[in-house]
Amino acid sequence: xxxxxxxxxxxxxxxxxxxxxxxxxxxxxxxxxxxxxxxxxxxxxxxxxxxxxxxxxxxxxxxxxxxxxxxxxxxxxxxxxxxxxxxxxxxxxxxxxxxxxxxxxxxxxxxxxxxxxxxxxxxxxxxxxxxxxxxxxxxxxxxxxxxxxxxxxxxxxxxxxxxxxxxxxxxxxxxxxxxxxxxxxxxxxxxxxxxxxxxxxxxxxxxxxxxxxxxxxxxxxxxxxxxxxxxxxxxxxxxxxxxxxxxxxxxxxxxxxxxxxxxxxxxxxxxxxxxxxxxxxxxxxxxxxxxxxxxxxxxxxxxxxxxxxxxxxxxxxxxxxxxxxxxxxxxxxxxxxxxxxxxxxxxxxxxxxxxxxxxxxxxxxxxxxxxxxxxxxxxxxxxxxxxxxxxxxxxxxxxxxxxxxxxxxxxxxxxxxxxxxxxxxxxxxxxxxxxxxxxxxxxxxxxxxxxxxxxxxxxxxxxxxxxxxxxxxxxxxxxxxxxxxxxxxxxxxxxxxxxxxxxxxxxxxxxxxxxxxxxxxxxxxxxxxxxxxxxxxxxxxxxxxxxxxxxxxxxxxxxxxxxxxxxxxxxxxxxxxxxxxxxxxxxxxxxxxxxxxxxx
Length: 600
Description:
By secondary structure, this protein is an alpha+beta fold. 48% of the residues lie in helices and 17% in strands. The chain has 3 domains: 4-202, Serine Threonine Protein Phosphatase 5, Tetratricopeptide repeat (Alpha Horseshoe); 229-299 and 340-362, Alpha-Beta Plaits, CATH 3.30.70; 464-591, Hypothetical Protein Tm841, Chain: A,domain 3, CATH 3.30.1180. The longest helix has 22 residues, at 151-172.
């Protein structure tokens, strides 16, 4: 083969992909860098399966096939090695789009440019990794080209040098010397090269990726017990870039926020991977360059704790509509499932890549109501599968079924994964009331209660919960469908500032006693007093939507009524604040007696 055309490249690529998929487990087993998380094989197999699924060969438009391969690389790249491989393949596709047929000289150029592109994708390239092997291979390709004009022969003759470079990685980093292994990503590259060499014409029907690949969609990081985790969140973002923006220009700014930074892509679409403690700041940086269309953030600290520092045999899961302080989530090792929130055409993970301190400026500036949606079925199934590897059972508490599809998705996922060990409960409430119920469940688990006892605790406290919200306007609730347009029109006509609550079934409720009040906060305090006198306020929390001063005033008034301090004061999640509106104040309570909510 003296000339490489698009179809031959396609066949070689799929052959290399198959070789990696076949050796997936081996790559997982030797993965110790940059984090010993045992997922390099999963990540590379995921990428290769995505390429096989999404890049159907087209004789009519070979350039379209190459563009589809690039898009599959952007969507399917995960982890450091996956991102590096992705940039390597994208660069090859770009070269081939410019050169429909590649002779030996151009093949050398393509290899060199693709390796340089992969190296430049990494913020701090390290010797002894896949990049080292790639560079050695590219040098060997150039050397072998002086001996033959056959591209196939060049690939075969350059392979031993690449293999020798791989073996040297055992001694190039201390972590490899300690574990006596080669770099997993570099080993994957050798498998890929082997597939290129052995490539045969691919039948079009052979393009479908492995059906089991979906099980690896969110495979957990599996750290060693001695590992340190300087940056908590493994984060990935896919961005549709504005105009001539280039994702590569962001690397210096991102270096302030974490490590393991890899940026992939060219004009139009870019992808970022990094380990960070502040994924929300990364998201803010990226929306200045375009629209975030996909993101994945894994809490490596919580994953580590579940493996090596598990406090109980029951895993407690809540969604992000549960407003409870992060330190309590950490203390009780609660797993938080973020809802999705779309703002100005960018999609965020609630409380993860979008925090309250920046959300309300976006809300004020946006002409459209933010759109919330439940987590994907695949992400919930993946979380449950991971948890069942470490815990005997899972208790999954969720925002009112009448206000969100999250409960339905989680219930469906539980039935698909293990309905005997996963128990999904509709709390029939949200925000701080949800937080208080979750807190009681967490305490019961911490005290060693059985699963049945913890579920009974939740059942006991759900009818004792209450939440009152003083909103400055019903505009956001109407736009978000939380209050009917008719109720909203009447409220606006009469200048009403009602108190919003939740009824016994989990529906939004406008309290009649405060419906005509010009000072809804004071009416809310009066309502709390009436509830306390009738039912007794056992515990309460204060919440606010970008209004800490109002929350402080609320604390003072409720302390006068109950004689006790709030368990905590915190901001509501963006997904809640998007409906309540900036300035809203909320009081959530657990009562001594059941609250029938029929007195509004």
